[in-house]
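User: Predict structure, ligand magnesium ion.
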Amino acid sequence: MGIEQLGSGAAVEMYRTMVTIRKFEEQVNQLYLSAIMPGLAHLYSGEEAVAVGVCSALTSEDYITSTHRGHGHCLAKGADVRLMFAELLGKADGYCGGKGGSMHIADQERNNLGANAIVGGSAGIATGAAFSAKKRQSGQVVACFFGEGALGQGILYEVMNMASLWKLPILYVCENNLYNEYTPYQEVTAGSILKRPEAFGIPVEDLDGQNVEEVYDAASRAVARARAGEGPTFLHCRTYRYQGHHVGDINRTYYRSREEEQLWRTERDPIQLWRTRLVAAGIADEALLDRIDREVEELVKDGVEFAKNAPYPDESEVATHVYA
Amino acid sequence: MGIEQLGSGAAVEMYRTMVTIRKFEEQVNQLYLSAIMPGLAHLYSGEEAVAVGVCSALTSEDYITSTHRGHGHCLAKGADVRLMFAELLGKADGYCGGKGGSMHIADQERNNLGANAIVGGSAGIATGAAFSAKKRQSGQVVACFFGEGALGQGILYEVMNMASLWKLPILYVCENNLYNEYTPYQEVTAGSILKRPEAFGIPVEDLDGQNVEEVYDAASRAVARARAGEGPTFLHCRTYRYQGHHVGDINRTYYRSREEEQLWRTERDPIQLWRTRLVAAGIADEALLDRIDREVEELVKDGVEFAKNAPYPDESEVATHVYA
Amino acid sequence: MSMPDTMLRETQESGRIITMGEAIREALAQEMRRDSRVFIIGEDVAEAGTPFKVLQGLVDEFGTDRVIDSPISEPGITGLGIGAAMTGLRPVVDIMFGDFLPLASDQIINQAAKVHYMSGGKLKVPLVIRTTLGATRRSAAQHSQSLHAIYSHIPGLKVAVPATPYDAKGLLIQAIRDDNPVIFFEDKMMYTVKGPVPEEPYVIPFGQAAIMQEGTDVTLVATSSMVYVALDAAKLLADQGISAEVINVRTTSPLDRDTLIRSAMKTTRAVVIDEGYQQYGVTAEIASVIAEGAFYYLDAPVKRLGAMDVPVPFSPPLEDLTVPTPERVVRVVQSLFNQ
Amino acid sequence: MSMPDTMLRETQESGRIITMGEAIREALAQEMRRDSRVFIIGEDVAEAGTPFKVLQGLVDEFGTDRVIDSPISEPGITGLGIGAAMTGLRPVVDIMFGDFLPLASDQIINQAAKVHYMSGGKLKVPLVIRTTLGATRRSAAQHSQSLHAIYSHIPGLKVAVPATPYDAKGLLIQAIRDDNPVIFFEDKMMYTVKGPVPEEPYVIPFGQAAIMQEGTDVTLVATSSMVYVALDAAKLLADQGISAEVINVRTTSPLDRDTLIRSAMKTTRAVVIDEGYQQYGVTAEIASVIAEGAFYYLDAPVKRLGAMDVPVPFSPPLEDLTVPTPERVVRVVQSLFNQ
Ligand SMILES: Cc1ncc(C[n+]2csc(CCOP(=O)(O)OP(=O)(O)O)c2C)c(N)n1
Ligand SMILES: Cc1ncc(C[n+]2csc(CCOP(=O)(O)OP(=O)(O)O)c2C)c(N)n1
Ligand SMILES: [Mg+2]
Ligand SMILES: [Mg+2]
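Assistant: Predicted complex:
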């Protein structure tokens, strides 16, 4: 594939979406620091190319499942910034009427089946959605996002076995950002990550998760395989989260060095890399990209304002939706 | 290794133990058919070489964990036939005072940590025992028996990961008898069984589970590795159960053919194969082996009589041992 | 287990007697014919028709595409069921023994029960988990539990505990048509119990207890097979001149509080009988609901009779001590009249 | 949360005030010094000292051999803990959020709770699972549950729900020395609550509730942080001339039935307060125990105040509605005097 086949419109849109995620997360951090956002949030900054690369290979009918670090997935699947911020502030206008919050945003209209606060918790849901797509012959594909920490959860192997057996149309997207919370993943992960899905008969692609083009290409191949009835693919995306495990994780030097963080930020930033590539390929010039940056800035500010002004849910809402 | 290094005494003992298991199970089936045994039992007949090969490589201090199909493991670890039958009949003299029954026999004196009626349910216990042995520097090794059906249980992968990470002294012994209850394992098992442990960094041996010598040799190598601090080994033992999934599973042709059963019984019987080998190697003659057969017959009959005559537990026992 | 008179009466009217196992199979078959979104997944459900043989024959009619043998992966198949339910199918997940539900408990408690609420009502999980409860099969501690209290505790789940073939069919059809996750507990000992069951499909709404027998002196509230224990106890009590009203709870969640409280108000005494562990079990909820709701009418404390608070022992004479029996119920009832 | 007068009094005597988090850390450190078999395993327990920072510093003293960072494998580490406990060690398994216990429920319910019984007393499982409960941290439905009722239901397990730093240290040391599996629930909101705690190691026996404040008109029975809610309610009630006795349950299993019943007999009224879901929850067991045991003394029905029967919502104004508050307790108590 590559940037050429992608088309310049799509390539620029990928840039815009990555910037949207980055600026969204900056605002989330702000909302936390200014004590406007209730609870915590797990920021996706640094990992944008994974969500955007994968979701750009999906149609709006395709499903995704997401994680505690899910804002990026949600935005990449096309969510509305206003409704997301509203959800993060627990407002009635939020995607889940304020009942879900950062760790449970779902966007039914774009077939985002939801973030999940149980590590690995959506692996079953995603595989079931793939099973459903296959049985309904809908042609839909599922992207199941999870961190490398989810490799510790047995259910992942259980459902990979079934996805492989029944050739389900699913992409297992492992976002390896090197840390399970505050523990380097190598300390708790034996053997080879890549060999694990392979042992279940699932092909693996080992990807530079900072390179949106590389992720997009691999995801496109995997989607094509899935739609052709050839079953699941496992995408291992090497990436990095810039911020702490969550917004409150400020002092991080006991588990990773400032130098390491700096290196990823300066050398491996997915947005900067893509920007450079777009300009070099003559697809966009700096002015266009600057304009996009400003547009996104506006969009995000507007979203925050909207959310701040939105009402809290009515008290009666506490008891609705327990049952359908 | 091979039969030569094993020593003729040990080689003949292995024969005796396999015969003991076979004749024990025949009696269990009898007890079921004559409605003397409460509940059900899962017979080990046909798989004797696995338990005996592995346990012959262990000391009495080493641990095992066992399964719903556990009589063979228990006997191979040296259990008393009388106390086993008593347990199967729910008698006070049984290994667990009648409280455990066929699926929960444990033999604390020989460090058999117990059978388990949850498929894969003892994988955690076995790995914990190995962790304990390592931490206590006791030099003990653990053999964790499970059927290939347990490959469906996520916890197995969780604990193999830890065993590999921390180089725990454990043998994961997969008894692949081709069926999960009434379902051929290939229908529910994707990819490659052998590659699964490998993906977690655990070396695998693929073994003829009907050949007690081959199993013993591999287990001895694995035990040596474990004692040397080199971590876990996965033994894949290809075997077959002669009887139904449990004693009540009489009509089996809908999931496997009579021919298949017959073939294993006549061509691949572990006891017959070992008998032939012992005689051929000049380690034992037919007369000796016939005598052993008769001795075992007596032992097993005696065990059944003992159990039949043993008293049921006192009613007060129902409420003891809930807490230590 | 003996068939109660009321049921015999119904039988004469309906004309058809089948077993509980047949009623369940018929409910599944009829719903699968009606709605192509319904499918079954579980261990040995297809050719084997489960170890209890309850599903036997379904695979012949519906094929291995809709009656699916799974790996031994309770968390995985439950998760798969949830995802399928969220995206347009109506899965019936078979968890062979209720004792295995804890393996799938994260999926049940943290996912299935909460998806609808967490999404602000946008997603739903029309999932049925069919499973079993009940002891006295000599299956020991890991195959004999009645764990329905755990799932009745969790908002977002519904829990059915059918007592008769009629219940089983009507509640199972309701469960399949319900847009919420339902845990459907079948007593393993009851598959061969017979009773009248209409041939055409019908639903029993959740949250409606059934009065199996009217009475005036004491209310016996029972779940699942304990309904038969209560009915047998009622017979013994009748011989002693005590008239017992017997209520079949049918669904522990939602619970038909009104029927229970009204009956206890009338009889002024109540005993709650359930086969789950007594401590923090189903009897606790029901007893406290009645004790609170009928407080000013009660002439004696509400009594509970659950399973003994011990792991289920294998040894038959011990196991038999752990479950409620008609004799034990009678003794408890008598104690309410002697104070 | 305010410190009750009784505790202030004890403080003046003992002379040392520390937080609940410190009390827990001290209990662990002292037991690890005393007994080399004790070790800790869990996610981010070592250098990070858990996300709650409760274990901070332990790894410095005891090393990564005894304070072990694990993969994110709740079933696996629980199973490993059980096996280690059966073979001579005394593991303390850290399950970060109580909401994750369902992942490990097969290991807890089918293995840990039953090994001793199933083996006829030959094997034992001296295991502690430290975990958390409690809402109002704006952590939404999968990080806010109080699931202690589920484990209190299972024979073979013990369940501690400490309310004060003094409880926490004494109950945790007891849990570690206990030869049975103990699930130890810490309220996440209470780690910074301060109270008097003796420096030397001590144990609080399981099954002994603490009367936090004596009273004559109504008994408030509470678990964990709900003890503070009850104490605050008692203050408000005192202003209205109602004298409340406040009981801290300390362990739901074993449950100190005698203390609860005796108190209700004395006051003639009782309200049970717990942060778990109300339906089939801890309040049901305790209320039915009191309603039965004190039946002939009660002047009003025993009332229950659990969490609302809804998944915990994220939105703060909604979440705050789901948990018992002093004001809600007062309203319920008042209703007992108006009938
Ligand atoms: C089952 C479960 N265990 C533990 C946690 C607590 N927890 C939240 S995020 C996290 C680390 C996840 O690491 P990873 O999967 O790599 O995702 P990342 O945060 O790095 O994106 C942990 C342990 C949880 N949410 N769920
Ligand atoms: C967790 C769990 N699920 C299902 C069962 C029911 N069951 C008992 S044995 C068995 C098949 C086990 O197959 P395998 O592991 O290959 O052992 P085998 O019986 O062949 O020795 C099943 C599904 C169980 N006991 N535990
Ligand atoms: Mg990570
Ligand atoms: Mg097998």
